[in-house]
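Two proteins were folded this term; both appear here.
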Amino acid sequence: MDKLKKPILTEKSISLLEKRQYTFELDKNITKSEAKKMIETHFQVKVIHMNSYYLPINKKIRKNIGKLKRKKRMIFTLKVGDSIPFSSINMN
């Protein structure tokens, strides 16, 4: 679970929960197959689809501060009837 950093709870990600889509921030080196296996084994759910993306880096900030870490997020779509209760998500 070291590569699975935290769940993302933004307005958009909360609206995706109605479609059984959960958003997590992940380690940037994790692959889709590793992430799928990790979610399925840890939460005992079936993942049917995944989308991954990197958050954009603001060039103005990058120029002043230097190189920033890119953050990788994945959206997992679960099988009908499956859900991840937020009480079981412990990212400490």
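Next, the second protein.
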Amino acid sequence: MFLGEYRHTIDEKGRMIVPAKFREHLGTPFVITRGLDNCLFVYPQSEWDKLESQLKELPFTKKDARAFTRFFFSGASECELDKQGRMNVPQPLREYAKLEKECVVIGVSNRMEVWSKTLWEDYVSQSEDSFADIAENLIDFDL
């Protein structure tokens, strides 16, 4: 399971150190793709396979299904960690997520997300006030 928030940097070649706690869960290979909210989603191969199966079931006759699967799969790239525990973030994905030098890596249960430091701070700032309302609308059990 992926949990926590970590601050990292991306070098000029697009390499980023993956938090040590996440490396074992990621395995090799793993998949990185465009996520929602201008972040990147990083999935272990087993989780990617589950998601791929679900998305393949969407009706291709539906415009939204075609748009989403195109967006999601066209940005996907299979990756491996190097000996230093770094992953290479492809240039188109760095551009999509507005990744420059500083980034934030967060754990979200079955996936890892990579955010621009600025976008993450903005997202947290905007979401903090509405967290209780979101929880009330989505969760049917007491925390």
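The beta strands are 5-9, 15-17, 30-34, 40-44, 77-79, 86-88, 102-108, 111-116. The first helix runs from residue 20 to 26. These notes refer to the second protein only.
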